[in-house]
Write a structure and sequence with these properties.
The complex is a heterotrimer of chains A (282), B (237) and C (265).
Chain A: E1 3-15, E2 22-34, E3 38-42, H1 49-56, E4 64-69, E5 83-86, H2 98-108, H3 113-126, H4 142-154, E6 160-164, H5 172-187, E7 191-196, H6 199-205, E8 208-213, E9 216-222, H7 223-227, H8 244-254, H9 269-281
Parallel strand pairs in A: 3-7, 3-8, 5-6, 6-7
Antiparallel strand pairs in A: 1-2, 1-4, 8-9
Chain B: H1 3-38, H2 49-58, H3 62-79, H4 85-95, H5 100-117, H6 124-141, H7 146-160, H8 163-173, H9 181-193, H10 196-209, H11 214-233
Helix pairs in contact in B: 3-4, 4-5, 5-6, 5-7, 6-7, 7-8, 8-9, 9-10, 10-11
Chain C: H1 2-16, H2 19-38, H3 46-80, H4 82-87, H5 93-126, H6 132-167, H7 172-186, H8 189-198, H9 202-214, H10 224-228, H11 235-262
Classes of the chains: A alpha/beta (282), B mainly alpha (237), C mainly alpha (265).
Chain lengths: 282, 237, 265
């Protein structure tokens, strides 16, 4: 499989303000992302996720180690036509409207004419910005800026998406829409690299993950394999009568198996909420 | 080629280019310094202390300071503060030595106004002398315009009756672009000296010089006729 | 190249919305227009006073506009993190840096043009009764003023290039202050040559001379006094001074773009 991103013992050390002590923002991280996958970089705040993404974009220079993005050095400017980036807190020129912003960034990426017009229209619609297409972004909420940022990252129809906390500032509906979008993009063959500290989000979207803590890569691999509890199976049983539960439990124990957990069927808050809102919309 | 190597090469090339250009500015700067002196634009401490000093203090144009002083001086003139005008005029010409009008005004003010005003005073001639000196100093800084040549000529012509000196100054004045009446003044000098032939020759020169100026031609023809008539009447010595 | 133009365009739009710029411009225009009224007191020197004040204002306010624009562009953008999204697109660092400078120059030229327009209106207004001799004089003054204005533009381009180069690695306040200092020191640079001549110790002499050549010689562009007094300033001189300005600006822009290329976001 073609490797879209590859890093080998990537390091970024910062000199501490008070003396010569180094702050190790990224410490010997080796990652591989294959074409067409959705990859999640997981870690608490301050673990180095944003630093890694910025290194991959050439916004920051590495102290040691090597990396290639789309087969090239991150500082190779023409490759950026094939990359889309969403920063953690997207900022744009306040006095412009979403349409003007998309036109500007599209032009920078060599997209022009009717193609650009079409893309702008479709992105604005897809990301729920139609009502604000001609409003100056000065008064946009965090969520709106996030949507706009996503649109900007997609304006050049990139092969590789680097998303730093893509659902930050979005409500559950927005989050769900973004996740649907990411899945859609992945189905089109795009590679998605997203970083997040929101575990459920990564769990929902990603096939492969890497976990990073204090700049070091602790674990990486296929999500299913990582989370699998090899000695346990979960069954969800539909009951005709509540008393059948006790019966079932006794029978399991008779088989010589340990019953780890029994709990009443329950929706996740997220599913409950989404169903409720969908009902309201109808 | 590895991108980092080509980037490094590019960086060194650019630093080299910047350094090279900076070095080449030195002879260009010397050339500019030279031009500033030859074209009389220089405002260094040595050449034009007044303008340099005001630039130093104001950090901008000395000309504005001069204009403010000029307005103040105008105010003094209207209030009759004639003696107080002098140091201001001095300051103005020190700061902007090519401000010809300042030299003219100063010279006239000293040689005429103050000279007349000091009628009863024992040292009134001093003002006339100072006026002439002031004009001469101004002339030394502004030789290639007619103005101060003319002003000096006028003082000698009008105030002192020294027509020979006046002629010398007027002849210098007409070498540069000048108003029409100065040519006529030359002729008048010869007239006052009583030198009829020179006078006639000058009037004829006036006719040739400004044929399009009707007013001038009318006056010159009148004087020429009178002089020729006088020449006929008076026998040559 | 195209990206440079897009960035310049956006920069220009951003600058023209800056309130400080508009206030400075308004102040300059009112000051220049009002010189018409000072001259009631000295009608014989009306033209001189108008030209002196207008050119002085254009130079001084132009300098303030230039340092505020060029010194604050990059730091403000870094602070607001708008740079990051732009640099994630196929835009070279040099294109970004030069695009920013080009956009600022456009705004500066426009401001200067507006101020110059007021001055020209005053000049032609004075000669409004267009007697042939007077209108010829008006055109002569206008042509001369164009030389002085061109030199002011060159001076501001040099100052602007220094301010933007410095702003790649310092804060907004520092770059603006530095720009103003450069304006003052640049007009006193000549002095250093005389000091160097008087130095006896060779190393001190060399150091002073080095500093003398490195400092921008803004006096090169000062032809204002000569022009207002009707002196002839040769086109050859203008060419030399403009060459100096362009070369110096090139050095500053090279250094600035190199520094910007190394910057981390």
């Amino acid at each position: 499989m073609e490797k879209v991103v590859e890093t080998k013992e990537l390091c970024k050390f910062y000199r501490n303000a008070s003396g010569n002590r180094y702050l190790k923002a990224v410490d010997e991280v080796s990652l591989e992302i294959e074409k067409g996958e959705i990859f999640g970089l997981l870690g608490p705040n301050g673990s180095g996720k944003t630093t890694i993404i910025k290194l991959l974009l050439g916004l920051i220079h590495p102290t040691a180690g090597t990396m290639t993005v789309l087969g090239r050095d991150p500082r190779h400017v023409p490759s950026k036509k094939r990359i889309g980036y969403l920063p953690e807190h997207p900022y744009f020129y306040e006095f412009l409207t979403p349409e003007e912003i998309l036109r500007f960034y599209g032009s920078l990426s060599d997209v022009s004419g009717t193609l650009l017009d079409r893309r702008i229209r479709s992105l604005i619609d897809r990301l729920g910005l139609e009502r604000f297409r001609k409003t100056r972004i000065r008064n946009f909420s965090k969520g709106m800026l996030q949507r706009l940022g996503l649109a900007v990252s997609l304006i050049n129809d990139p092969e590789l998406l680097l998303l730093d906390e893509p659902t930050l500032g979005l409500d559950p509906i927005g989050t769900s829409e973004v996740q649907d979008l990411l899945r859609e993009l992945n189905e089109q063959g795009k590679t998605v690299f997203l970083s997040s500290h929101l575990l459920s989000q990564v769990e929902d979207c990603c096939k492969r993950v890497a976990i990073i803590y204090r700049g070091r890569l602790i674990k990486s691999g296929n999500l299913e394999n990582l989370l699998e509890r090899k000695d346990e199976m979960k069954f969800t049983v539909k009951l005709n009568d509540p008393r059948q539960a006790e019966d079932l439990g006794r029978r399991v124990q008779e088989l010589g198996l340990e019953l780890s957990e029994v709990s009443a069927g329950r929706d996740s808050l997220k599913d409950f909420f989404m169903a409720l809102i969908k009902g309201e919309k109808r | 080629m590895d991108l980092s190597v080509s980037l490094r090469i590019r960086r060194y090339l650019l630093i080299g280019a910047a350094f090279f250009i900076l070095i080449s500015l030195a002879p260009l700067q010397q050339s500019i310094n030279y031009s500033r002196v030859t074209e009389d634009l220089a405002e260094s401490l040595v050449i034009r202390p007044g303008e340099f000093a005001t630039n130093f203090v104001i950090g901008g144009s000395s000309a504005i300071a001069v204009d403010i002083l000029w307005l103040e001086m105008d105010e003094m003139w209207h209030c009759g503060k004639w003696f107080e005008m002098l140091p201001i005029l001095r300051a103005v010409t020190w700061m902007q030595p090519h401000f010809v009008e300042a030299w003219e005004l100063g010279g006239w003010h000293l040689a005429y106004n103050l000279h007349a005003y000091a009628k009863e005073m024992p040292d009134r001639e001093k003002y006339l002398e100072e006026g002439i000196g002031f004009l001469k100093e101004g002339l030394s800084r502004n030789r290639s315009v007619y103005d101060l040549w003319f002003n000096l000529g006028w003082v000698y012509y009008n105030k002192l009756g020294d027509y020979d000196t006046a002629i010398r100054y007027f002849k210098s004045a007409v070498r540069y672009e000048h108003p029409v009446y100065i040519d006529r003044l030359l002729a008048h000098c010869y007239r006052k000296k009583g030198n009829l032939e020179q006078e006639i020759s000058e009037w004829e020169r006036c006719l040739r010089l400004h044929p399009g100026n009707e007013y001038h031609i009318k006056i010159v023809k009148k004087h020429l006729e009178r002089a020729k008539k006088k020449l006929k009447e008076e026998p040559l010595p | 190249m195209k990206n440079l133009i897009y960035i310049a365009g956006i920069t220009f739009k951003e600058i023209m919305r800056n309130r400080l710029l508009n206030v400075l411009l308004l102040f300059a225009i009112i000051s220049i227009a009002s010189t018409r009224f000072f001259t009631i007191f000295a009608p014989s020197e009306e033209m001189k006073i108008i030209q002196d004040t207008a050119l002085g204002m254009i130079r001084f306010i132009g300098m303030l506009i230039t340092v505020f624009i060029c010194g604050s562009l990059l730091p403000r953008e870094a602070e607001r993190r708008t740079t990051v999204t732009v640099l994630s697109k196929p835009v070279r660092r040099t294109q970004f840096f030069l695009g920013k400078f080009a956009g600022s120059l456009y705004a500066i030229f426009l401001s200067l043009g507006l101020m110059a327009l007021i001055l020209y209106i005053l000049v032609f207004f004075k000669y409004g009764h267009l007697d042939t001799a007077d209108s010829a004089e008006a055109f002569f003054i206008a042509a001369n003023l164009a030389k002085a204005l061109f030199m002011i533009v060159m001076e501001l381009v040099v100052i602007g290039s220094i301010a933007i180069a410095v702003s790649t690695f310092t804060s907004e306040i520092f770059s603006v202050t530095f720009g103003i200092l450069v304006f003052i020191i640049g007009h006193l640079a000549n002095y250093l040559q005389h000091i160097s001549d008087r130095m006896e110790l060779l190393p001190l002499k060399v150091v002073t001379l080095l500093v003398y050549y490195i400092l921008p010689h803004l006096e090169n562009f000062n032809v204002q006094n000569a022009i207002v007094l009707g002196q002839e300033v040769s086109l050859f001189y203008i060419f030399k001074a403009a060459s100096y300005g362009l070369l110096y600006t090139a050095v500053m822009l090279i250094l600035g773009s190199l520094l910007f290329s190394e910057k981390e976001f």
